[in-house]
Amino acid sequence: MMQWSTAYGIPAAIAISGGWSMFVKHVQSHRALHYWWVPDATFIDMLPEQLQFARHSANEWLAGDKKTGGQGSYVSKMVSNNLQSKAGRVREFVSNINFELPEVQSLLLDVQRSGSSYNVSCKWMRDNRARWSAWKPVETSCYEGFGLVDASGSFVSNRTTAVGCGLCQAGTASEELIDDVGRTFQCKPCPPGYSQPNTYSTQCEPCPKGTSASMYGSTRCTPCNEGDYQPDAAQTSCIPCGASRTTLLLGASSLADCVCQEGKIEKLSTCMECDEQSMHCPRGSTIEKLEAADGTTDLKIPFVKKGFFSNPEEPLDTYRCTAELFCPGGSPGVCFGDRKGLTCGDCADGYYWASNQCEPCGAVSTAWALSVTLALVCIFWLLLYANLELYGKSQCDDVHHCSLGNASGPVPKSRRFEHRCCAVARWLGSDPEFCLTLYLQP
User: Fold this and answer.
1) Separation of alpha carbons 78 and 59, rounded Å
2) Which parts pass through the membrane (predicted)?
């Protein structure tokens, strides 16, 4: 203000009011320059005139030369950040309203003088019907998210039978339509391969991989069933995996998701029959998974059942074992302990079967060695007895007692010796088939 006064020779004294009421009083009581903004009715009855300065120059103001007018400011009010969707027709009507500033100021002056804004407004509408009628939106001029509807509320594709606009429902999308009247929108059903679950939508969404939509107006895409897959988006159907194959879950999106059905196992990209008696083959079984099996408890992976043996070189060749203990199952080639062979029937070289396990041959037990030794001694004495009887050098009064040479009569117990086999047999608690007693004569 000081620069303006100096630059343009304005005889002015500058004062600042102590508040809004004092400001209004000062302006109304004194002939003075004052700040004001329009449209506003505070000083409208005084018919103030605007003092015009040269157009604002930002460069001069930046350099400190403020002889030009002020920059001014734009005052706006935000009613709603989504007014178009909430009340689109109201928004369009308001946006079409157009008044010039002097006209607004004149109406404000009329309101102040008459004291009734209602009467002033009604008089203006009666005098300007053609003007404000043009501001009304066309009933069939729809906005995004809406579409043309007929008298029954059904969506239509042109204005011929349309009477208004309706909110686009799920399964549809708002599409722009240009005709002789102007711009409008129609709600079109989503085509096959697309869907839209929401209302007030401007486009349909393509079905993602692993899903499809076969009908118009779909609100959701359907995941592919087990046994089907779909590697592309926006599709109307899914692709079958083919014979002997299925999928582990719904919504498969790749041919790689197609696996062998239950009771089959994949070998070299081919699903082979799986012997259900000897092998457990769930969906998705492969030779690689079978070879990596650890035991028979995880039912989600293939394994050889207990009591059977699978040839590691040909895992699908299985054999029943002579004893279930020998073949614990799991992966191919697994035997109990150190057993080996197609049915785990043999111990490895250098081992023998004892006490339900393969024992090293070097670890022969003392009891076993003693048993063998006693058996050999028994055989020796039996051979000796047979030889004596063959040559008639002994006389036996029964199968258990014999005499050597010509000895006869009772023999003292001190000179009677029982065969060692009999003693051992009695010590072991067995009843020997015969005992050989030798009688030595004095």
Assistant:
1) 32
2) 367-386
What are residue 357's phi and psi, to 5 degrees?
Answer: -165, 160
d(CA 168, CA 344): 73
- pTM confidence score: 0.58
The letter for the amino acid at 370 is L
Look up residue 180 and give its two tokens: 């002789």
Pairing of strands 270-273, 402-404: unpaired
Distances (CA, A) of 343 to 35, 291, 335: 109, 18, 8
Mean pLDDT by 10 residues, the chain (442 residues): 76 84 89 82 84 82 82 68 75 86 89 90 94 90 92 94 94 95 94 96 96 97 97 97 94 96 95 95 95 90 95 93 91 90 86 80 61 73 60 41 43 47 49 45 41
Give the separation between CA 402 and CA 385, rounded to whole angstroms: 9
Hey, where are the domains in the chain? 2-62, 261-360, 366-439
Residue appearing with tokens 């035991």: 295
Helices (H), 18-157: 20-29, 58-62, 83-96, 101-114, 117-127, 129-133
- What sign results for the dihedral spanned by CA atoms 397, 398, 401, 402? positive
Mind giving me the DSSP string for 237-260? S-EE--TTEEESSSSB-SGGGEEE
Give SS3 for 417: strand
User: Which residues lie below 8 Å from residue 101, measured CB to CB, with a gap of 6+?
Assistant: 38, 39
Instruction: Compute CA 370 distance to the chain's CA centroid, rounded to the nearest angstrom.
Output: 70
3-state secondary structure of 423: helix
Could you tell me if 327 and 351 are in contact, meaning their C-beta atoms sit under 8 angstroms apart? no
Q: Which helix (H) or strand (E) is 204 found in, with range?
A: none
Instruction: Name the CA dihedral angle for 29, 32, 38, 40, rounded to a multiple of 10 degrees.
Output: 0
